[in-house]
Each structure stands twice: as structure tokens, then as C-alpha cells.
Design goal:
By secondary structure, the chain is an alpha/beta fold. It has two domains: 75-215; 219-436, P-loop containing nucleotide triphosphate hydrolases (Rossmann fold). It is 50% helix and 14% strand. It has helices at residues 7-12, 24-28, 34-45, 51-66, 75-87, 93-110, 114-142, 151-161, 176-189, 191-217, 269-285, 318-334, 352-366, 382-387, 424-430, 433-436; strands at residues 223-225, 231-237, 248-253, 258-263, 293-297, 301-305, 339-344, 373-377, 394-399, 401-404, 407-410, 415-416. A six-stranded mixed beta sheet has the order 6-7-8-4-9-12, sandwiched between helices. It has a four-stranded mixed beta sheet with strand order 1-5-2-3. Helix 6 packs across helix 9. Pfam families: MutS_III, MutS_V.
């Protein structure tokens, strides 16, 4: 089953976006090759839902975090090799020799460069395999070619580079016939094996690169647990895009599955909620996460409602768009899915009375879905007092504001309870808006 995260959630959390410098994807996208970028994108598009697979991938990243490695391959050479293998070759050596002879004739007759380009591609392929030979020797010498994430790559490289049929790889002045035979061997006989080697090579690049990012950022690796454990415990949680972010702890279980979050504007509620969603998403990818410690039960997906837009084409107001969002989540949790749900200021598009009633009713109803975890923020702190009668399934926490005269200071540290902080008018007055009017 695929991990659920719809476009609204992906946009709310700024998870994807190669050309968005502030996306989580861009944070990790320091790979150099197109193949590596394609694999990284696939990992972001398809988080895992099996605890063993998550932990296996996480262990690979952790290995390269503990055992630093450099990626010795040239981007251009790998790209040329991939294009060359995709083009392929004729089905047998005589046909390959005839086709290359025809290219040689056209090169002499009409100065066609197809033969020259083909020879360049062969040289690029040979260059990659020579780098493989050097790297493989180093891994074998250090004993890292077995029982490590390098093993699949090493086995694949060993099978190809030590095949006697490719002995002309190391010949500096190859004859025309030798080039034709190499072309046949590389683009036909070993084509699929070389494609597999390329795939493993791109995988190594992603492992090395992502591990480097995680180490530089001080991220940790989460432990995935089976779904039936039904818990989430994370310490030192922060937003991965903020270098000096204040860290907080989160804890959910079947007996405490709703976090009711209050706090003034600018106190950090939205940032904390986004950080929590990103944390869960990256954890399901097996990636390093912005925390100091984390263990979590595998979930079916994440839904968020942070920046819900109206829809002029469909005639939806902001409030109605919010209602539809809540309805979508209600349908999913009612269908038995285990979800992490973020609602930032429920029903802010309507009047205070309706918002109070709706927030109270929806939050109370969500407590019944014990296999889902919810973070619900609101400025209507009075809802919290009414929710206390619902039992112990709701955690009440807030992000405080410390007033220094007329200037608010925000600690960004979670505290237990419900806050009545409201500094909206103070901020407006501090900006001198009323004096202007």
C-alpha cells in the first residue's frame, strides 16, 4: 500500500519541489547526477509503509553517516554511459561490426560524426568501469565490500569488471575491430548488467549525499515499529529548514492521540506543526530526521490543513474549503486508516461562535480514532476547557508569550496547559498602524 500524502499536504509542508530552494527536497538534493536526482525524487514521492524496509534504508544512511565516503564518479561520464546503454546495439557481433563500418564510411564520405560520438560513449563507459575497478579494490582492501550497503554494488561491479571478455578495456590503442567488439559487449552482452550497476551507483550516491546532509545538520535516525505498537515518541524535534530552531518533544499513543495546541500569533504553532509533519514524512522514507531521538509506529499517511485556499472556479469560500478538508480526513479515518493529521486553526474562515462549536465537536470526535494521531491548534482557547471533560485522550499544550513591557517575546518551547495569550492588538499598536489611521 502506498503512503498517503495528497497535494495539499505536500504543499503545506513544502516537501517537494526541485526548483523551490526552501523545500525539504532541496535540502537533501545535493546529488550531482541525473540518475541520483531521479532516485531521490522517487524516494520523496513514495515513502515506505513497511517497518523492516524503513529500518533497512535508515541503516544504510546511518552506515554512510558513520563511515564517510566520497562519490568518485564523474556526472558527465555516467550520463553518457546511461544514454549509450539506452541506445543499445545490434543483436550479434557481425551486425555490430557492419553497423560501425557503415558509420566509418559515412564519417569519411560526408563527415558524419556518429562514429566519433559512439567511440566517445565507449570511452565514457570504459572510464566508469575503470573507476569501478579502483573503488572495488579499495572496498575489498578495507573489507567493506561485504555485509555493508556497498555489497550489492560491489557484487555487480565485480561480475562485470573481472569478466575476461572485457580484457580490451585497458588497451590504450584499440583497433577498429576491438572497438566494434567492445561496443557489442558493452551495449548488448553486458547491457542489462551495466544498467544494474548504474542503478546501484546512483543508489550509493544518494546514500552518501543524504547521510552527509544528515550529519552536517545534526539529524538522527528514527526507529520504525509495527503499526500495532501505535505510538510516536520524538525528542528534540525542530524544523529542518531552520538552523537555530528551538527543539520540542512529542508523544502520542492510543491512549493519548490528540494534541490540542494553543498560543498567540507568532508563538510558533504553525512551524511546530509543519516540523512534526515533515518529521513523520521523512521517517517513513528512512531518511535522517530533525530530532535527537525518535521511534514511531508505521502509519498509512499524513493529512494537513495549514493553508487551505478558497476555490473561485468552484465557488468555494475559505470556510467551505475548510469544511471539505475536514470531511476528507473524516472519511479517511472512518475507513480505518492510521493517519497523522494536522489542523492549524480549525474553521478560522467563519464566525467565532460557529468556529467554537465546530472545533469542539470535531476534536472530541477525533479522540475515538485511537490509531490516528492529531495535532489541532486554535486561538479559541475556551474550546480547551470544554474538551477537558472528554477524558485523558487529549494533551493540552501551548507555546507561551513573555511580555517585556509592550514587546512580546516568544520562547517556542511547549508547555503543558492552555494559554489565553492574545497579542494581536499589541502587535498592531506596536507597528503604529492606528497612528497612521
Amino acid at each position: 500500500m502506498s503512503f498517503i500524502a495528497d497535494k495539499q499536504t505536500l504543499d503545506d509542508l513544502s516537501l517537494l519541489g526541485k526548483y523551490n530552494p526552501y523545500s525539504v527536497f532541496s535540502l537533501f538534493n545535493q546529488v550531482k547526477t541525473r540518475g541520483g536526482q531521479k532516485l531521490l525524487d522517487q524516494m520523496f514521492q513514495h515513502p515506505l509503509t513497511d517497518a523492516d524496509q524503513i529500518n533497512s534504508r535508515s541503516a544504510a544512511f546511518r552506515y554512510f553517516s558513520d563511515h564517510r565516503a566520497s562519490f568518485p564518479f564523474e556526472e558527465e561520464a555516467l550520463g553518457n554511459m546511461e544514454a549509450y546503454l539506452d541506445e543499445g546495439c545490434a543483436g550479434n557481433f557481425p551486425m555490430a561490426l557492419w553497423q560501425m563500418s557503415r558509420k566509418k564510411f559515412t564519417a569519411l564520405a560526408v563527415k558524419d560524426d556518429s562514429l566519433s560520438l559512439q567511440l566517445q560513449s565507449i570511452d565514457a563507459c570504459i572510464g566508469v568501469l575503470k573507476t569501478c575497478t579502483t573503488l572495488l579494490h579499495q572496498l575489498e582492501k578495507e573489507g567493506r565490500d561485504k555485509n555493508s550497503p556497498w555489497q550489492k554494488w560491489a557484487d555487480s561491479a565485480r561480475q562485470i569488471t573481472r569478466d575476461k571478455r572485457l580484457e580490451h578495456l585497458h588497451t590504450s590503442n584499440r583497433t577498429f575491430t576491438q572497438n566494434a567488439r567492445l561496443h557489442y559487449l558493452l551495449a548488448q552482452v553486458f547491457q542489462e548488467q551495466l544498467k544494474t550497476l548504474l542503478a546501484h551507483t546512483y543508489e550509493m550516491e544518494v546514500y552518501i549525499t543524504v547521510a552527509n546532509v544528515g550529519r552536517e545538520k545534526g539529524f538522527c535516525y528514527a526507529t520504525a515499529l509495527p503499526k500495532e505498537k501505535n505510538l510516536l515518541i520524538a525528542h528534540g524535534v525542530r524544523h529542518p529548514g531552520l538552523d537555530k530552531a528551538v527543539a520540542n518533544s512529542l508523544s502520542f499513543s492510543g491512549n493519548s492521540n490528540v494534541l490540542f495546541l494553543t498560543g498567540a500569533n507568532m508563538a510558533g504553532k504553525s512551524t511546530l506543526m509543519k516540523a512534526s509533519g515533515i518529521l513523520l514524512y521523512l521517517a517513513h522514507m528512512g531518511f535522517p530526521v530533525a530530532a535527537t531521538e525518535m521511534q514511531f509506529s508505521v502509519l498509512d499517511g499524513i493529512y494537513s490543513s495549514v493553508n487551505v485556499p478558497d476555490d473561485l472556479d468552484k465557488g468555494y469560500s475559505h470556510f467551505y474549503a475548510e469544511v471539505l478538508r475536514v470531511k476528507k480526513v473524516a472519511e479517511e479515518v472512518d475507513a480505518g486508516k492510521s493517519l497523522f493529521v494536522i489542523f492549524d486553526e480549525l474553521f478560522k474562515g467563519t464566525n467565532v461562535k460557529d468556529a467554537y462549536d465546530a472545533t469542539l465537536a470535531v476534536t472530541a470526535a477525533f479522540t475515538a480514532f485511537r490509531e490516528c494521531f492529531f495535532i489541532i491548534s486554535t486561538h479559541i482557547f475556551e474550546v480547551g476547557d470544554a474538551l477537558k471533560a472528554e477524558g485523558d485522550h487529549i494533551q493540552f499544550q501551548f507555546l507561551p508569550t513573555v511580555m517585556e513591557g509592550t514587546v512580546p517575546r516568544y520562547t517556542y518551547l511547549l508547555q503543558k496547559g492552555i494559554t489565553q495569550d492574545r497579542q494581536g492588538m499589541i502587535i498592531i499598536e506596536n507597528e503604529g498602524i492606528l497612528d497612521m489611521l
